[in-house]
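Session log. Operator J.P. requested a structure for one protein chain; no other inputs attached. Running the standard single-chain path with token output.
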Amino acid sequence: MAGFPIPRRTGEPPVVTGPSPHEQVTQTAPLELQERMVALAGTLPGVEVGRSYVDVEGSRAFHLSPALARGPREAFLAGTEFAHIHPCYDGSLHLALPDPTARVVADAGWGDRHPDTGLLLVYGPRDRIEAELIWRLLRMSYRYAVGTPEQAERWD
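Structure written below.
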């Protein structure tokens, strides 16, 4: 089992649709926090923000430079896309994490596993504290994609 100190998410979980599209429809993340996630992701070395290969129009994907994409196939949603954020009407993210880590995140109430693929949908942040936690999860996904799975659970 993953050994990082993720707190339990407070309150009721948002309503989620799926399997296609797999989206959050209540408790939408404020636009400023969505933009913060995109801006922060764009600061990761070798990451380019662009169109998603696998999700609805308007989703913004985080693509890793092919030279850095040394993680296992499971570390990517498609191509070198390791995560994406849904359009502004939603604000949740799909991201790749090692399966034990994804289970811990979902069990702590921060996300929902896709009913068909098991891919993790992480709920959009409701406030700046939640945004910091989700930024940590996004960095974990990044480390998984660059091929450092032993560091994917590092909680920093």
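Operator note: The helical segments are 31-41, 99-107, 128-145.
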